[in-house]
Design goal:
The protein is mainly alpha-helical. The protein contains four helices and no strands. It has a domain of 93 residues. The longest helix has 28 residues. The protein is globular, with a radius of gyration of 20 Å.
């Protein structure tokens, strides 16, 4: 049994595997740029782990924000892996495992965010819609003279 709640989160487990995989990469280049790219990819993967762990202990908007930030950190880690492939003149297939782990963790976070948006199956909770027959409160009025943004009112 896990000691902390976040250890049960699949996205956290996948992000940890990504962090370990990036940290263990053996780069056959002595270029500073390759070492920097690997360090940045590792740093962003680790940041994603931390954000997921923090989000597991939160609820509502705070949790959603942390999970979205974690998804962004995973995307940045993936981008740094692309940079690493470029500066070492390697095929991206060399880093296929790391790319797959980043993609898998991102998909898992997306699924979690969808589940949060849907809310619990029964009863009220964050992200649920008002019951049938009740209307959501109207949006606050715009200041006089203001125009809606591109794409019209939302």
């Amino acid at each position: 049994m896990a000691e902390f709640e976040y250890q049960n989160v699949e996205a956290w487990q996948t992000a940890v595997r990504l962090t370990v995989a990036v940290g263990r990469l053996k780069i056959g280049s002595n270029l500073k740029a390759s070492a920097d790219a690997q360090a940045k990819a590792f740093e962003q993967a680790g940041l994603a782990c931390a954000l997921i762990a923090e989000g597991a202990g939160r609820e509502g908007g705070a949790q959603v924000g942390l999970y979205r930030d974690a998804r962004g950190a995973l995307a940045q880690s993936r981008s740094w892996l692309h940079v690493l492939a470029s500066v070492t003149n390697e095929q991206e297939a060399v880093f296929a495992n790391e790319f797959d782990l980043a993609e898998q963790a991102s998909r898992q976070l997306t699924a979690m965010l969808r589940a949060i948006d849907r809310g619990p199956a029964m009863g009220g909770g964050p992200g649920t819609r008002p019951p049938a027959g009740r209307q959501a409160p109207p949006p606050p009025p715009r200041p006089a003279g203001s125009r809606p943004g591109p794409g019209g009112p939302r």
